[in-house]
Design goal:
Number of strands: 12
Strand content: 5-15%
Order of helices and strands: EHEHEEEHHEHEEHHEEHEHEHHHH
CATH topology: TIM Barrel
Oligomer: single chain
Helix content: 40-55%
Radius of gyration: 19 Å
CATH architecture: Alpha-Beta Barrel
CATH class: Alpha Beta
Structural class: alpha/beta
Distance between the termini: 51 Å
Number of helices: 13
Length: 348
Amino acid sequence: MKSRQALGPIMIGVEGAELSAQERELLRHPQVGGVILFTRNFESAAQVAALNAEIHALRDTELLIAVDQEGGRVQRFRDGFTRLPPIATLGRVYDESPERALVLAETAGWLMAIELRCVGIDISFAPVLDLDRGVSGVIGDRAFHSDPETIAILAGAYVRGMHRAGMAATGKHYPGHGSVAADSHLELPVDPRSFERIVAEDLIPFARMAEENTLDAVMASHVRYLAVDERLAGFSPFWLQEVLRKQLGFTGVIFSDDLLMEAAVVAGDVPARAEAALAAGCDMVLICRGLKEAAATAEQLDRSGWHSPLQSQERIMRLGAGSSIRYRDLIAGTAWQEAVRAVSTISV
């Protein structure tokens, strides 16, 4: 009989469309609390639903299952799912008709979330709150707009749709990745701007949504804001605890970005990166690929006696979506059909 246990602070990636014996064993480790899926894990809606059901059945307290399903370039599940436009298209609609854009943003958020919930996904790491300043290629049309207030308004509508579908929302990449050219997957981005300028620009969407208590989670960037802290934001107690928790009053989950990204190398080996991120204030750290690295990190946290604070455990467990509508019932309903038609009108 499985014993009830809290969810640990590590979210890992798995390699294929089915779990290996080694992956099943690691997913039962107390330091593991979730799984993030990618295109490599997807063959069909039925297959990924079966995979998610198996993952959820491994533990008495179901592991959290996440995916990046933003739309546009970043949509991990495609066949059998509505093709979602990049959210920058909503920003262009907003410039012409704010009222129409807000309706479409809420509809797109609901559609994205409800389709994922049908196959057992708990959260999509969305929405992107970065600014599109024409600087960052890795952000670009993943951002709603260049204006931070407009981003906050559109993201608020998008999140209302996600919440209506029963899915928690994660704003990324705190405190803003859109003003640096370097891609943190491949190199270390350095932002030289002052704290005051970042607060007046990139931080605004996060601040507005924290004020409104609409974000359930935040993902921290692997960017070094050199005039503020030499440490990357995801390893910085200043950015995570002083600014996000204390100044902005954010009470949700703080995720690290993928600890295997090139920018994170500055924090040491993967277990050291995890320890540094957790010590800085992250509730959960992502290791998106590599069974060996994930296992070594879990073992290191055991050796160091790491126990996630009760408050952190409670935050993580609140992100679980629970049961949802069956896919065949969803697509038979008028709400889904109308949403698909509405989203199809958004010009790419």
